[in-house]
C-alpha cells in the first residue's frame, strides 16, 4: 500500500514531544485559559457545562478555532 503512494506521500518525522507542532495542543491551551485556569468547579456537571459552552461557542465561530491553531481557510 505504501509503494502505491510513492511520490504522493511525504512522511514528516516529528520530535518525540512537540506540542507546538500539534494543532490540538493549541486548542487545549486556549481551553485551559478560558475554562479551567484557576477555576474550582463545584460539581462535575458544572465542569461539563463550562466545557460544552466553550466548544459550542467555537463551533459557532470556526474562524476562531482556525486562528488559535494557526490554520488558514482554504
Structural description of this entry:
This protein is mainly α and 74 residues long. The protein has one domain (3-69). 53% of the residues lie in helices and 0% in strands. The protein is built from three helices and no strands. Helix 1 crosses helix 2. The two termini are 29 Å apart. 0% of the residues are buried.
Beta strand count: 0
What is the global morphology?
elongated
Number of domains: 1
The Cα radius of gyration reads 17 Å
> What can be said about the biggest beta sheet?
none
Portion of residues in helices? 40-55%
Oligomer: single chain
Structural class: mainly alpha
Q: SSE order in H/E notation?
A: HHH
Number of helices: 3
How confident is the prediction overall: mean pLDDT? 85
Strand content: under 5%
Low-confidence stretches: none
Considering the chains and any ligands shown, give keywords for the structure.
single chain; 74 residues; mainly alpha; 3 helices; elongated
Summarize the structure.
The protein is built from three helices and no strands. It is mostly helical and 74 residues long.
Amino acid at each position: 500500500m505504501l509503494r502505491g503512494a510513492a511520490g504522493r506521500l511525504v512522511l514528516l518525522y516529528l520530535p518525540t514531544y512537540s506540542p507546538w507542532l500539534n494543532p490540538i495542543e493549541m486548542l487545549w491551551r486556549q481551553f485551559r485559559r478560558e475554562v479551567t485556569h484557576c477555576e474550582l468547579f463545584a460539581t462535575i456537571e458544572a465542569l461539563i457545562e463550562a466545557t460544552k459552552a466553550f466548544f459550542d461557542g467555537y463551533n459557532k465561530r470556526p474562524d476562531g478555532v482556525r486562528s488559535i491553531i494557526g490554520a488558514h481557510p482554504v
